[in-house]
Amino acid sequence: MSAAWERPPWLVSIRRSPHENPVGAGMLVGPRHVLTCAHVVRAGTALGMPREPVFVEFQYAEAHDPLPATVVPGGWHPATGTDTGDVAVLELGSPPPPEAVPAPLRTTDSGTWDHQFRAYGYPREHPRQGVPVRGEIIGHAGSEWLQVEASPHTGWALEQGFSGSPVWDVHSEGVIGMLVARDSVTKVDRRTAYAIRVETLVRYWPGLGAHVRDATTREVRERLESLLWLPLTEDGEIARVDRVDPHDIGVSRSTYSDRPGASPYVPRSPQDGLLDDALLRSRFVLLAGQSKAGKSRTLYEALLRTLPGARLIVPRPDGTDRRILDDLSRLALPLGQDRAVLWLDDLHRYLRPGGLDLQILDRLARRQPAVTVVATIPAKQRAALAGMGNDIGRVARTVLGKAHTVELPALLAPQDTAAARELYPREDFAARGIGEHLVAAPLLEQRLRDGAESCPEGWALVKAATDWHRMGMTGPVPESALLDLFRSYMSAHYLRFDADETLYRSGLAWAGEPVAGAIALLYRVPGPQDRPAYTGFAYTSEYLDTRADDPSAAVPRIAWEYLAEHRTPAELVPIAYAALVREEPDVAEGLLRRIAGASGDRDGAAWASLMLGQLSLIRGDVDQALELLDAAASSRTENVAPLAQVELAGALVVNGDRTRPRQLLESAVASADPQISRLAQVGLAQVLVLQGEGERAERLLEAVLASGDAEAGYLAGAQLARTLTDGDLAGVRTGREPGTELGKPAAGMGVARGPGAPEPAERPWTLPRMMGDAVAGQITSAARANLGGLLIHQGKLDRAEAVLRSVADSGQAHVVPWALAGLGDVLTLQERYDEARQVLEAAIATGHPYVLPVAQVGLAVVLLGGDEEERGVAILREVAGSGRPDQSNRAACALGEWHAARGETGPAGEWLERVIASDHPEWAPPARVALAVMLAGEEGGADRARALLAEAMGSGHPHQGPRAADLLGDLLVREGHPREAERAYRTAIDSGHWYWAPPARVGLAVMLAGEEGGADRARALLAEAMGSGHPHQGPRAADLLGDLLVREGHPREAERAYRTAIDSGHPHWSLIARYDLAVMLADEEDFPRAEDLLRGLADSADVTAASWGRALLGMVLIGGGRRAEGIAHLRAAGDAGVHPASPMARFRLAKCLTEDGDDDGAADLLRSVVEDEPSDVTEAARASLCVLLLRRGDREAAENLLMGVETSGDAGALALAYLGTGEFLLEVGEVIAAGDLLEAALELEDPKTAPRAGALLGVVRRSMVDPGDASSGEALEEARRLLTDALDTGEPSVEPLARRYLGSTLFRLGRYADAERTLLPLARSDDTVHRPQALLLLAQVLAVGDRQEEAYPWFERAMACGDPETGSAARRLYCELLMSAGLQERAREVLAPLVTEAGVEEEPLPEPLPAPPAGPAAGPAAGPPAGPPAGPAVEPGPQRSAPHPLPAGVLALLGDVAAAEGDEREARYWYGLAGRSPAASGPPP
Q1: Are 749 and 1040 in contact (CB under 8 A)?
Q2: How far apart are CA 429 and CA 426, in angstroms?
Q3: Which helix (DSSP H) or strand (DSSP E) does residue 196 occupy?
Q4: Could you give the domains of the chain?
Q5: Closest CA to 892 of 865, 918, 866
Q6: Which pTM was predicted?
Q7: Where is the stretch described as Disordered (predicted)?
Q8: What is the pLDDT of residues 396-436, one digit of tens each?
Q9: Peptide bond into 907 cis (omega under 30)
Q10: Are strands 116-121 and 371-378 parallel, antiparallel or unpaired?
Q11: Which ranges in 1210-1288 belong to alpha helices (H)?
């Protein structure tokens, strides 16, 4: 019937005109009648029977012209719209071609449930030749239809063009219906369709009845007996258990079998009881044990005890049809209502391709009554199958996992031994199993061993017949084949013999001699067509399999080659399977190639392509694997295609493809085989992780784990680690630790002095604040960064570790290596490096070909981070040269990054360029990023770095794309392209990537914070990053937000941000925030709280943070008046040897010693800082030491010190060094030392540096004026001279600075007109740094000169200048001026913003009294300050727990306003807050 399946001679195509394409199909149902659908004959809803002919062409006949055909009377039944009708019977206008045969029509009465079908149609893509389709019959649908479903993975869907096709039932071997309709694509899918049953077709056209018949009893019997080993009984039934001879179903004959009743069963305890219970409770019972342990007999006896009347189904083991079990599970078996048992002795023979699987077990379990499967399996074959990493192993493990397994030991239990001795008194059961004794195993073994010498020809025959069985041949060996093998064996082992007929007969005689009872080494049995055939005694093959020490015991290559030459491709499949189980991969591959290259066995070729593809993957030949797996995935073999899709997707992922694997796996998920569907889900999860869809991937894997499918569950568990870490194992994957990269600011934004900052003053904690980047940078690099988002994923990592450990402990050889490799990565992420190393070494030791390179790279990463760099590099080089696309590129990328980290740019570039050239979607993007990071640090490398980052950003890589965008933003900021940088940062932010979007927000915030008007956006970005939950960037953003708020003058908000970072517990940023907050509090002279923070920092387990905390604590204690204690902390920090905290502490300690007059001690400390490893205080120490030397008059030593190796005496270079160092010291508050160096720079008279040096020296001299000192006028005059000289140079860069401070100096000298002339150009300029102070000074100059009306606009401009401090001061002074002029209402308006901003609740003020007499403008700005205001003792204000947010001067002004308006109560309130008495306040005179 197979030819009819392939080329049905009744199949026709139907056209509506001779030259159109077919619109459907039909079938010949009589000599000249064709059956099809009415809508095929005529489209639409026209009434009446069509008169025009259609044209019919037989699909598989010789070429012929289309035959006209018309609808016969009574043969037109169009569709009614209620799922009935749509039948047309046509009569041919001329005879059909001679090849045409009417379809064998069958009723569906015998059942069609789960049957497979074939059909044929003419879809739009194949309108002429048509295509076949296969699928499964689902069941009855309504009164007339059957529902059918096309295979979701093989061939075409059921669509337009298939209407009218005959539906061939593979199992009943007949046409059981005609395709008529399908579901709408939008409603269900293209694969569900409906067929009109044959019985319904007869009702529409009764003449069809004569052509329909049920399968005859003979046909049914022949079909069943072709599948069964035992013949049916005379009445056509399957035999019952108690009617079967056990020797006919695999129970070995013993030395006692020739005597009836002389072979009693020896009970086995506790196995008999376990089997009896299992047979009553389970639907699948497996008895496992060593060879000749008595498995078959023990299982048979259990059936006799528990299910003696059950029908015993014994499938034929020697059939060429690989689907025997599948057919038996679908057919209606003659069981009646009796229980049935499926007997599978030597189960491993049924686990070959196309054999027992989950779907067959499911169909058997769903029968009514259910079929119980019982089986035996030798322990050796079970172990071999369980250890196979291909699909055979998967199916075998899954099937074995479904069984209720009972283990049968070889030796009898003590109580059973006593019973055996009683039953068989002549046997000794102490040393061997009962099975071996009863088959005379010792005698058989001895005869075979002796025969190699005593009768070589007999030994060769026995060996050939036994090897026949060992190679997977279940039937006896035909005599012709045995003779051929005999000659080959003799030639191979005994060249001296002539292997002629006589020798052959002699060997047969020897081999057939009984050894004990009827047992012999070789038996003659009937073969095909009753020709002679031979079979070896079953025990012999099992015995030879144990002789690993004897080379002659193995199956020789000549035997495999003989079968390869003499068997059909279909027959070679079980032979190839046997070779795989026997661990003969080369033999198996050769056989599989023959099968795959044959054209006669499509299903076998598909299986062979699949297994060859798997073997190619194991060898690492990805290209060949892709070709073979593609062929298998494209086949129309239902049980092969979806699995091949899963395997092909995995190979494509290795090769760098992402798109097609997803398509393949999404298709395979719909497989009817639930396990293949789950395997597809595991593979799909892997692809989703690579594409950044980690959440969906995690859901898929958790669903697989929850399914209880151990096979797929283990694989899901092994995949879960990458999913729970978003697939981006950061340093684990590439050898790189995440951290600072392209100039990423590691700490705060600094607190640069704004235009309204106070005059320079000695503030020792300002230096460490300016060094904030260095402090943070060192703390964050003091320990290895938490890799891969450890903190945010810790719960998931714990889950991943638990799952992976369970898989690793499962003993499943095919997944344990994967689990170990994944567990190694997880442990590395958790910084458990010693454990990770042990686990990865174990993964490597498994030798698993897929896992080996993965584990090697993971191990190399661990080694590179430890003390075995050389070994780690060697491993990476080995993997990089392996040729495996994914891991070789991963290893090359890791090597490139490792060399780059060591500054070896040449080899780093070579490795990274190699990965980039591969364009591997997983590894080329990180290679581009790594190379960009390296090039960005090299001169002239910025352009290429930008291009590489842009490529990576646009790669679509879910992790490296956002990472590249963030880094590109950093690079563009560094190069001065803020708007382009913002676009790059926005790309990273908009990606929503949990790890890289937050640092992009931080980077953009840092950039905006440095731009005019960018502070608000910077604050918003930092707040978003702070709340992102990112383990590192969240605390970092909180610290930076604190820095920004400090800079903007919002200390309380800054403290809240710092506290957020501190409370995060981050190992680095919480310490940095503690440090920054302490600095802010010290700036506010809140020394107790600063001290508390710093003591916590000093007690930190982080030695770097502790050293910084101790150093700053020393400074704070000194600032708070506890000098001795502070010096002790500085000395301890300086002696700690922690760079650069210790040099900074020694520098500060040197300043203290200088103040105490210990210049020698200070000089020693400063030298130690200068000679130490360079740090941020090195130059400051060098400058301070230079000052000491200059004060001692050792100018030459000072010059040598500053110039370092440049001893040429270049005055210009020295002046530049003096200027730079002096300016630095001035900025950090070292005013006196700065003045000394600036004076030295000026004295060198270098024209390039003199203007700025003079201006800065003028600032220094002006700031050192003591109002109570009689020489203050001289100091101011010197400052005026220096600043005037600087201004007169005409240097544009110096002019704003010189004008500002010269105007201030002239003001203090009382030279108001000169001050006005000096300040006006600056006040009218667009300078943003010095102009605000110029506006305020100019207003004060005009006010003091009794030109109030002219002063008012300048105060207004100063208030609106945009600088908070200058604006606040201008508002206060302006208010005083207005008050003095009697303009209280205007004064109140000017002061109102300060009151509102501070949150003071205002009460309604009474109407103002008449203004006091106007007087000359005065106040604090009226002239050079002469120290604190004099007057009566200040009356203490009201007690309060914290200082009022408004300055005391502003509070006093509010009191003045109230007093001027006559409200004494309110005036006392404001004066009390200001801490002054009314007598000390009031309007200025």
Answers
A1: yes
A2: 10
A3: strand 192-197
A4: 2-214 (2.40.10.120), 219-432 (3.40.50.300), 640-724 (1.25.40.10)
A5: 918
A6: 0.61
A7: 735-758, 1401-1447
A8: 888 888 899 999 998 888 888 888 788 887 777 766 767 66
A9: no
A10: unpaired
A11: 1211-1227, 1231-1243, 1250-1263, 1272-1288
